[in-house]
Write a structure and sequence with these properties.
Blueprint lengths: L3 E2 L2 H23 L4 E7 L3 H16 L3 E7 L5 H12 L6 E4 L9 H5 L13 H8 L8 H14 L6 E5 L6 H10 L3 E5 L6 H6 L3 E4 L17 E4 L3 E4 L8 E4 L4 H5 L4 E2 L6 H20 L11
Parallel strand pairs: 1-11, 2-3, 2-4, 5-6, 5-7, 7-8, 8-11
Antiparallel strand pairs: 9-10
Helix pairs in contact: 1-10, 2-10, 6-7, 6-10
The protein binds NADPH dihydro-nicotinamide-adenine-dinucleotide phosphate.
């Protein structure tokens, strides 16, 4: 039987609709408009595309969107001053500093200068600690999106064997914490893992967050397993015309889909969920800041 395709694009639209609904209620019942500020330093073209997309979707769900575009030579002191101003702005409930930052800026220092309750990326050391100890935190958007899709597909994932390939601070590690929080038995694999194929073959859930195009072949997948492909890799696609490219994930989609029970495509899987979860985190942060009930199902 062919794998069920987990449609991240459709799911993200549902999450955005739920966020928009909650924003309307916050405005109507409490006169509060959630606000998200995005800080971009430099002119990295990919970052510019992400920031534009984030701003557009923020406005579409009825929230206030603020963008601070600083030039690539901005000093650390000037960037910290912008963050300090946003930390103290009562109309801003979420702050996101677009990564990567130019080399002269200390990423850890900058992220840890964001007020933890406004850290909608969930990268602040306080949020990392809260997540690791099972307390209420801001949860990193990409792993949160993966968790939402898994819960939606399976209902409960309690007791399942999960393998996360990749141990980065933004995807692999928080993903593993979230799976553990939902009572999976979790293995984290990485570049030094021995016999990765055997490790992956044991998994009921495989989350691939590696950054290597189509690295996971179908014969690593246990029949019926759920495959969540976080990877976004651009390959040359001369068959589409000169200079054209196409996006592929970290799993070999065709061979994995032939064996898996369910799989996320690339594009149209995890990617769209990431911005939807950013919006969800902003509305959650706004509710917490105002002592109001959080929307159901939009956080871990
Ligand atoms: P990083 O480069 O930070 O981490 C990659 C991880 O993969 C590392 O832990 C590394 O291990 C591991 N790894 C590398 N090679 C191998 C290998 N041969 N076998 C096993 N493990 C390996 O990447 P990110 O976590 O930031 O991103 C991963 C992917 O997800 C990328 O394609 C990125 O573009 C994508 N991404 C997608 C998002 C979305 O919205 N859909 C958001 C964020 C990322 P080690 O630690 O040992 O070096």
């Amino acid at each position: 039987m062919p794998a069920t395709i987990i449609d991240g694009k459709a799911f993200a639209a549902k999450v955005r609709a739920q966020v928009a609904d909650h924003v309307t209620r916050l405005k109507d019942a409490h006169g509060i408009t959630p606000g998200l500020a995005v800080v971009l330093v430099g002119e990295d073209p990919a970052s510019q595309v992400y920031v534009r997309s984030k701003g557009k979707q923020t406005v579409e769900v009825g929230m206030k969107s603020v963008e601070h575009k600083l030039d690539a030579e901005t000093s650390e002191a000037d960037l910290l001053a912008v963050i300090d101003q946003l930390n103290n702005d009562p109309e801003i409930h979420g702050i996101l500093v677009q990564l990567p930052l130019p080399k002269h800026l200390d990423e850890d220092l900058v992220i840890n200068s964001i007020a933890p309750e406004k850290d909608v990326d969930g990268f602040h050391i306080s949020n990392v600690g809260l997540l690791g100890t099972g307390q209420k935190s801001m949860v990193p958007c990409t792993p949160l999106g993966c968790l939402m899709m898994l819960r939606d597909h399976h209902g409960s994932i309690s007791g399942m064997d999960a393998v996360v390939i990749g141990r980065s601070n933004i995807v692999g590690k928080p993903m593993a914490q979230l799976l553990l929080g939902d009572s999976c038995t979790v293995t984290i694999a990485h570049s030094r893992t021995k016999d990765l194929a055997e490790v992956v073959r044991r998994a009921d859930i495989v989350v691939a967050a590696v950054g290597r195009p189509q690295m996971v072949p179908g014969d690593w997948i246990k029949p019926g397993a759920t495959v969540i492909d976080v990877g976004i890799n651009r390959l040359d696609a001369p068959e589409r015309g000169e200079g054209k490219t196409r996006l592929v994930g970290d799993v070999d989609y065709d061979s994995c889909a032939a064996v898996a029970g369910a799989i996320t495509p690339v594009p149209g899987g995890v990617g769209p969920m990431t911005i939807a979860c950013l919006l969800a985190n902003t509305v959650t942060a706004c509710c917490r800041a105002n002592g109001l009930d959080e929307p159901d199902g939009l956080t871990a």
